[in-house]
Structure to design on (348 residues):
């Protein structure tokens, strides 16, 4: 994130203790030239992948905030510095003290007008500064030339290669690639088991991207199937290689398999799930704000995944849906039974 940049003095004075409506904007990537002016930066020298530009009002400040659960894919979990704040009193109490402008197609939007339909705009109280946060990619070589670009240390492209080392699968016979497919058999006996320690541990680590292997172990046990097996509890797993090839135990027969699994996730809605294998029931507990509707989608992170969803309306009525891609989707026939519904402390 760049340093805070003050707005022009006439803009600050004009909208002091007032509200500005931003109805459109343009942007470009520039640099200072020898005369103190600005020149556009060519795309082959610096590429703007995306950007967020915060506009701050005088009642806002920079503060450390926790990263969103939606950013779990990012490598850093440290607090972020971001503008925050809302006016607490006065005639503009419902006007944001911070607003922002963002585009996922940053470079394609250079010198293009971004406007709102007539009668619409982004409001901000007493704007005083902007804080740009562009994601820039250096498309020059490390020596400053305009040919090629920086390559990671792991690049296997030789000097003078006709292909870029950034290409995922370069056309070359120097790299030998292979693949293996594994699947889980919950009951019975595998017709073709994984019968080596290394292959077993590899299979366990790739069987599900949502499962974290907490331990690999090698045992000699008559209570486990011969060869490779995996025991999963919630989102964690133990991968076991059994060297006792004469074991007659079958999949699903191990005494360590849990009969009850639980899970918990929280964002704006608190979700708790308890799966009882013996009773073949799933108990789902949802907690959210009492006066508005809330819901949860299962097995998905975005609406485009078309998840099965449970929705609780502002009066506590429960409905089930199959969402569409940014569409309401379809209301499903009820398959859940409400066993309890109560309100306390502004939560249902």
């Amino acid at each position: 994130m760049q340093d805070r940049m003050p707005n022009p003095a006439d803009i600050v004075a004009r909208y002091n203790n007032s509200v500005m409506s931003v109805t459109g904007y343009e942007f470009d990537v520039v640099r200072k030239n020898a005369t103190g002016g600005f020149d556009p930066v060519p795309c082959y020298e610096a590429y703007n992948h995306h950007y967020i530009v915060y506009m701050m009002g005088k009642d806002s400040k920079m503060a450390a905030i926790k990263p969103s659960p939606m950013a779990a894919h990012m490598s850093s979990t440290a607090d972020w510095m971001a503008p925050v704040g809302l006016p607490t009193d006065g005639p503009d109490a419902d006007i944001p003290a911070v607003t922002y402008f963002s585009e996922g197609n940053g470079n394609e939007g250079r010198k293009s007008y971004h406007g709102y339909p007539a009668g619409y705009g982004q409001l901000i109280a007493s704007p005083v500064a902007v804080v740009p946060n562009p994601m820039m990619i250096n498309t020059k070589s490390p020596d400053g030339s305009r040919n090629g670009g920086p390559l990671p240390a792991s690049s296997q492209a030789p000097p003078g290669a006709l292909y870029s080392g950034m290409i995922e699968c370069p056309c070359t016979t120097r790299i030998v690639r292979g693949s293996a497919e594994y699947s889980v058999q919950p009951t019975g006996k595998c017709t073709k088991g994984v019968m080596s320690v290394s292959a077993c541990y590899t299979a366990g680590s790739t069987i599900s991207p949502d499962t974290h292997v907490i331990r690999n172990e090698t045992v000699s046990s008559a209570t486990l199937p011969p060869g490779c097996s995996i025991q999963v509890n919630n989102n964690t797993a133990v991968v076991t290689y059994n060297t006792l090839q004469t074991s007659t135990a079958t999949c699903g027969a191990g005494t360590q398999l849990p009969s009850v699994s639980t899970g918990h996730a929280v964002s704006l809605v608190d979700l708790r799930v308890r799966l009882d294998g013996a009773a073949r029931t799933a108990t789902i507990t949802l907690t959210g704000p009492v006066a508005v509707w809330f819901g949860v989608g299962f097995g998905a992170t975005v609406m485009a995944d078309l998840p099965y969803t449970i929705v609780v309306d502002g009066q506590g009525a429960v409905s089930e849906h199959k969402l569409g891609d940014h569409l309401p989707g379809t209301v499903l026939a009820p398959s859940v039974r409400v066993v309890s519904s109560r309100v306390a402390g502004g939560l249902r």
